[in-house]
Design goal:
globular; mainly alpha; single chain; 10 helices
Length: 211
């Protein structure tokens, strides 16, 4: 998927949709991630020729919810699919991402919000505010080591701030006010790594009101 070669799409789609139980998830996830790369590398005309095939595979991966997913392999597949749908874009992909903002797996929800923001879709705002809030319990909860929990929180918050900036840049009609309260809490928190970014975004949101 690293090269501009549309010929790889059928093989990647086949790999992404082959269901042979738990051991196959690593292959499927790699193929989904490669489809994300392909979607970002192909020229617009080449991508449009392959879009339907890619979208069908990504939507199937995004809906993967077996009754028992003790290893989180299916959840991670949905997470990768959410990221790839954000790269692919388009109305149907964004509608799927909006649904994935309610996914039970945090990483899937976070990737869905970031993907929507990439396309200026305001449906990302409630979840972005949730991600930015330093008191949100599910940010970093997947890590068992305290130091890794903090690192995960910082990464998720930083990504959410950048996604919010991108959303506001791509959609000048979007109302960033829901982000203001969590940003203020973040600025007053002990997460010094992202306080500067939070301050800049808050100033951007409040600037029109001040003017």
């Amino acid at each position: 998927g690293e090269f501009r070669a549309p010929e790889v799409v059928p093989a990647l789609v086949a790999g992404a949709t082959t269901e042979k139980g738990d051991p196959e998830y690593a292959v499927r996830r790699s193929c989904v991630e490669a489809l994300a790369v392909v979607s970002s590398q192909l020229s617009r005309p080449a991508l449009e020729k392959q879009r339907s095939e890619i979208l069908t595979a990504l939507l199937a991966a995004a809906r993967e919810k077996p009754e028992n997913d003790a290893t989180n392999h299916a959840a991670e597949l949905r997470s990768s699919a959410a990221f790839a749908l954000g790269v692919l874009g388009g109305e149907e992909a964004c509608d799927a991402l909006a649904d994935l903002t309610g996914d039970p797996y945090p990483n899937t929800r976070f990737n869905a919000a970031n993907g929507l923001a990439r396309h200026g879709d305001s449906r990302a705002l409630p979840l972005l505010a949730h991600m930015i809030d330093p008191d949100t319990a599910d940010v970093g909860a997947s890590e068992t080591v305290p130091a890794l929990q903090r690192r995960k929180r910082v990464v998720v918050i930083a990504n959410a701030i950048r996604a919010a900036e991108q959303l506001l840049e791509n959609n000048r009609e979007a109302n960033g006010e829901p982000l203001a309260a969590p940003l203020r809490k973040l600025i007053d928190s002990d997460l010094f790594e992202v306080r500067g970014e939070a301050q800049r975004l808050l100033e951007r949101i409040e600037a029109p009101a001040a003017a």
